[in-house]
């Protein structure tokens, strides 16, 4: 009811400022048809046009030999014996291309997934270090967690990209190694370390919530600390922290929208670019929000499924 | 087999308690020793020291001649030889009964899946629970869980079995089934140290009874001596309270 009222109100308000809704223009940013023209690279004469199935092969005879152009189409623009100059269109066809919004969505998914995997790994290790009896591990973990939790993600992304990124890539270039690390990976690192700090605290709480008897039982069977953790404690702890973990992953997907500022064209950046060219901000931002919602909602559905399945 | 020399243990947290005061004892191979005493007498701490779940402040413990308190000793290796059964079972709730019994065999003893599986089934049959192999522990009664826990410990083929109040968390009608399994083990010649309040079990199965109070061994002897002619006043008082 409220939602419907909000939508009606929004449309009414938009009408008041003469905003023209053009929803039909949106699909093209997901998937569109592109015209591809096949142009001759030599000057000469069309020697032969052979059709084979749906495709065509055009032979152009020039001063210094023949060139054969093929196209998956019957839309031929020349006929046998035509004079051809360099750059003339011989044939054209249409092809489907993935639009910028879909590309942005893909980058968002990719960045989030990689960051989730690394975030969990970092979180598990930091969480274990956090409850370690070894003071060096313990205090490193505490420092890491407090540093990350105490500063804004935006600042951390800047530090990763402009400070660490510049340092690492400049050093790589100085060492004459022919590769530099693209910004995407600094974005992933920022997100992974950010998430890792929160996951670490959850892992710590999860492990501490497992009864001490579990550790004692496993150790009394001769299992080492690591074996006990891997086979007995962590599986139970992870199951218990699944709900807060899912919340953290959802935050991570949303936080990935900040990566636009370091030239990673994820969903928000892509939307912003489309808005500047299409001047359809209302539709596009709603679509953008909807896409994020689809991602986060499917994630939380999946986690709910996992929870139900592992409920023993 | 077990040689305990002058161990002492003081807990500082939450408040200072002298749990063990200069305790010494020797358990021979094949012997069944029952440790009794009022709560807080240090009997649980004593048995937990035997496989290093507690670390005594002083003294030495030799298991099969190995000083288990020596930092150079591989305690995991010692523990595979010393099985332990807990008051609260401590089965792994995320694993089935069968997986509970095979896990340590696979991880510690590095047995093949089939071998661990068949060893587990033999032991589950021995404790009378083979038809529940594929259910999760929370679907079992307390007595059944404790029998699985015994099978899990036996799966490592230990030379010594420690029982820390194995029947104290059970409903009365389930105590018998667990004690029966323990009696079978004792008859088969397993070296056992049992902390329990089951005086019937002590009388019937024990080779020796140890009575502890305030962190020390007050009295020890054969069940006949212990239950018929206790010498120490503290023992007499305890027995009069529970019998």
Description of the molecule:
The complex is a heterodimer of chains A (312) and B (243). Chain A is α+β, with helices and mostly antiparallel strands and 312 residues long. Chain A has helices at residues 2-16, 100-130, 135-149, 153-174, 183-209, 212-220, 225-255, 267-278, 281-309; strands at residues 31-39, 44-52, 55-62, 65-71, 83-84, 89-98. In chain A, the strands form two sheets. Chain A has a four-stranded antiparallel sheet with strand order 4-3-2-5, with no helix packed on it. In chain A, a hairpin with a 2-residue loop joins strand 2 (44-52) and strand 3. The radius of gyration of chain A is 29 Å and the shape is elongated. Chain A starts with a helix and ends with a helix. Chain B starts with a strand and ends with a helix. Chain B has 243 residues and is α/β, with parallel strands linked by helices. In chain B, helix 4 (113-126) crosses helix 5 and helix 5 (142-154) packs parallel to helix 6. The longest helix of chain B has 16 residues, at 172-187.
